[in-house]
Structures are given as C-alpha cells and as structure tokens.
Amino acid sequence: MTATKTSTTKTSTTKTSTTKSSTTKTSTSKTSTAKTTTTSKSTTSKTSKTSVSLTPPTNLPASAGSTAYPSAILVNGVFDGHMWKYDRNPSSCEGQSETDEDAAMFIIEAGGTVKNVIIGPNQGEGIHCRGPCTIENVWWEDVCEDAATFKQASGDSYVIGGGAFHAQDKIFQFNGRGTVHISGFYAKDYGKVSRSCGDCTNNGGPRNIVIDGVTAVDGGPLCGVNSNFGDTCRVTNSCQDSGRSCDRYEGVVKGNGSSKKIGSGADGISCFVDTFVTNCS
C-alpha cells in the first residue's frame, strides 16, 4: 500500500494492554520511562467546529514536558495533555509496515477527545479512532506510518488545529465511513494530508472528507478519495504550495489488486474545490 522507509530500522516490539492509573504531573520534564494514566472523564466544551483559524501555526510548539509509555493509551471521554510530549518506549515505529492500533500512542473510543498533545517520533500509528472522535490541537513531531486512522462505522470526526511533519505517505487514513472534518491544520513534508483507504478488507464507501483552513507545504494533495465508492472531498479556504488539491482513485477490496489513480482536481462529483491558493506564506 505504501513505500518502506529506509532512513532508520526500528525493532518490532510486542505490545500489551495495561490498566491505566491516575498520575499527577508536578515537574516540567520527565525521563522517558513507561508510565500509566487514566483519561479525564470531566466534560469540557469543544472548540467550535465552524470557527477556526485559517492561518495555523507553522512550527512545532514547545512542549511543557515529556513522557513515554510501553503501550497505547486508551481514551474514554476527554484527554487533555496540556502540551506535554507523549511517546512510546520501547519504540513501536516500523516505518511503512502495517502495524494497526497496538502501535498507536492513543486509542480513542467513540465520542472521545484528545487535545493539547505533542506526539513524538517513536510511535507507529499516532492516534486510532474506533468511533467518531475529536483531535484538537495535536501535533506530530515526525509521523511514522500514519498520524491518525479513522475507523468509525458512521458519523463525524473532527481534526481541529494542530499539525504534522515528515509523513512519508499520508497523514490521515480514513478506513471507516461517514465524514472526517479537518480544519485549521498545518502539514509539512508529507505524501498526502488525507486518504480514503485504497485497499482495505471490506473496502467501500461513501467516505467524505471536508477540508477548511488547511495549509500544506512540501508534499502532495490535500485529499485522495475513491470515486468508485462514492467518496467526496470538499476543500475551502486552503493552500497547497504546488496546487494539488484533490486526487481521485479507484479503490479495491484487499486482495483484488491495487488502487489506481484516475484523475486530479475538482470534477464536481468527487472533488469540490473553492477558495484554494498556492501561495502559502
């Protein structure tokens, strides 16, 4: 499905599920040792899903501290990282090898939120959303296989703000159904910002990607969708420095060959593009 990274060889490790117990952060830095935590169950209001900055920050924010875990953190409710950097120790990154959610930094249950987090380079799959989720002001220092994967059966997921760097292939992988909204996001040095799965088991659609206020430089299209499955991508108020807004593909079911690119740009059927520029400064 994707090319293999050759810059670094990562050793595969076995991940085990752990019970998370509450910890209190009392210092501004931590050593990279395995820790456990629980997610906050308190209810907080989400950032507006219609009012976001159209000029997102372009640099990785400074972290308030750092911590590392031996396994993925399971999130129910709201997890606010308060701009700490979270990573895996030992590393679960295996380049472009398919690893799945056990290699993730966070696994979000349906309706959950991860916010105000920096994700380090030593995790394989970033965030996995089992159902509709919200990812707010999350930054990926160095994407391994994917930054986030959406597996919802239906409904809406939201990426609000944040950014990602150094994704050899796609940043956001959409394996489920429904709609993923990406707004106020920054991408640099990447393959694609978002992609409907080209060759998943039981592949199909429709999948809808809505992109607004996204800035992307040194990379490929903002979205790639499978026209034959009824997917759509809508791009507004966004910039891609080489003019690549939307690519159209023919998706396949796993085992039936490879997904093939069939076109680029707005066609009024699968790709809709409005207020799109190439000067991203």
From TrEMBL:
Family stated for the protein in its record: Belongs to the polysaccharide lyase 3 family.
PANTHER family the UniProt entry points to: PECTATE LYASE F-RELATED (PTHR33407)
Catalysed reaction, written as an equation: Eliminative cleavage of (1->4)-alpha-D-galacturonan to give oligosaccharides with 4-deoxy-alpha-D-galact-4-enuronosyl groups at their non-reducing ends
Pfam families attached to this UniProt entry: Pectate_lyase (PF03211)
Biased composition (Low complexity): 1-51
Subcellular location: Secreted
Signal sequence, start to end: none
Cellular component GO terms, alphabetical: extracellular region
Compositionally biased residues, Polar residues: 52-66
Predominant cellular place of this UniProt entry's protein: secreted
Function: Pectinolytic enzyme consist of four classes of enzymes: pectin lyase, polygalacturonase, pectin methylesterase and rhamnogalacturonase. Among pectinolytic enzymes, pectin lyase is the most important in depolymerization of pectin, since it cleaves internal glycosidic bonds of highly methylated pectins. Favors pectate, the anion, over pectin, the methyl ester.
Organism of origin: Drechslerella dactyloides
The organism's place on the tree of life at top rank: Eukaryota
Biological process terms in GO annotation: pectin catabolic process
Keyword flag Secreted: yes
GO molecular function: pectate lyase activity
Disordered: region residues: 1-66
InterPro entries associated with the record: Pectate_lyase_PlyH/PlyE-like, Pectin_lyas_fold, Pectin_lyase_fold/virulence
Keywords: Calcium, Lyase, Secreted, Signal
Protein name as annotated: Pectate lyase
Cofactor(s), by name: Ca(2+)
EC number(s) stated in the UniProt entry for this protein: 4.2.2.2
